[in-house]
Amino acid sequence: MRIGEGMMMYSVVIPAAGQGKRMKAGKNKQFIELDQSPLIAHTLKVFEEDERCKQIILVVNENEIDAMQEIISTYKIQKVSKIALGGKERQQSVFEGLKQLSGPDEIVLVHDGARPFIRKEIIHELVTTTEQEGAAIVGVRMKDTVKRVMNQTVEETIDRSELWSVQTPQAFWRDALLTAHKQAEDQQFQATDDASVMEWVRARVVMVEGDYSNVKITTPEDLLMAEAILRKRRMEHDSNRTRF
Ligand SMILES: Nc1ccn([C@@H]2O[C@H](COP(=O)(O)OP(=O)(O)OP(=O)(O)O)[C@@H](O)[C@H]2O)c(=O)n1
Ligand SMILES: C[C@](O)(CO)[C@H](O)COP(=O)(O)O
């Protein structure tokens, strides 16, 4: 399905059914407020406002359905077409979300609810790359030296010129991703991202260079980073408005 100038549209599965244990907030971090709005509302808003996004499949904890519905209503997120129930691991949650999609094959993005700062330009580059190459993920080059450590002893320094810190969205053709997830479930293959599931079935996955602001809100320090990113983006927005 395309819109103006032939731009391919996409569906997005947003896993938000984790526990947020590393945040140590005593609740799912999706409900932590950033600039007076819940984290998940920031992420949903990005896709709600993207004209190329056809629909959002939100994956939630069963005991948080009402809370999530309230956020969807409060922030007028009209593109949430389905709510799926998450599983014990992220991979299972994503699979449950994918199962809600049907119809002709399409491009599907999987994007962490905990990554509120993804930029629309990167999303569009992922969609275009997937249309051409089959699968695309976003990442950034490693900034630190990386070493393999065992029993607190350095075993090896890894050449970081070939290493990337991988983020989301991760973009695929839906049928290929669903098939790979089904095989992974049948053979109990577990991975921490969807690209790994596709790599496991020997699919080619292309890396798109993103930016360092697309952080995953995971530990308390990330909230400080988030406030700084929000402040910077507000300043960018204000200066753009005054310029024209
Ligand atoms: N069983 C799970 C685990 C994670 N997620 C989602 O996957 C994204 C990335 O996971 P992570 O950052 O690890 O979130 P949590 O699992 O909540 O964090 P923690 O590991 O600290 O509990 C988050 O949006 C999270 O809500 C999910 O939908 N279902
Ligand atoms: C998918 C992901 O965000 C890519 O970096 C990451 O693997 C999620 O890991 P988590 O432990 O589930 O947060």
From TrEMBL:
- Which residues are listed under the site Positions MEP for the nucleophilic attack? R160, K216
Query: Pathway listed for it?
Result: Isoprenoid biosynthesis; isopentenyl diphosphate biosynthesis via DXP pathway; isopentenyl diphosphate from 1-deoxy-D-xylulose 5-phosphate: step 2/6
Superkingdom field:
Bacteria
Q: Which reaction does it catalyse?
A: 2-C-methyl-D-erythritol 4-phosphate + CTP + H(+) = 4-CDP-2-C-methyl-D-erythritol + diphosphate
Signal peptide positions (record): none
The task this protein performs is described as: Catalyzes the formation of 4-diphosphocytidyl-2-C-methyl-D-erythritol from CTP and 2-C-methyl-D-erythritol 4-phosphate (MEP).
Look at the named UniProt entry and state the broad enzyme category this protein falls under.
transferase
Q: Which gene encodes it?
A: ispD
Transport: present as a keyword of the record? no
HAMAP family per the record?
A: IspD
Which SUPFAM superfamilies does the UniProt entry name for this protein?
Nucleotide-diphospho-sugar transferases (SSF53448)
Q: Name one Pfam family in it.
A: IspD
Query: What's the name of the protein?
Result: 2-C-methyl-D-erythritol 4-phosphate cytidylyltransferase
Query: What PROSITE patterns does the entry give?
Result: ISPD
Spell out the family assignment given in the record's similarity comment: Belongs to the IspD/TarI cytidylyltransferase family. IspD subfamily.
**GO MF terms on file?**
2-C-methyl-D-erythritol 4-phosphate cytidylyltransferase activity
Write out the entry's keywords from A to Z: Isoprene biosynthesis, Nucleotidyltransferase, Transferase
Q: Where is this site: Transition state stabilizer?
A: R22, K29
> Its Enzyme Commission number?
2.7.7.60
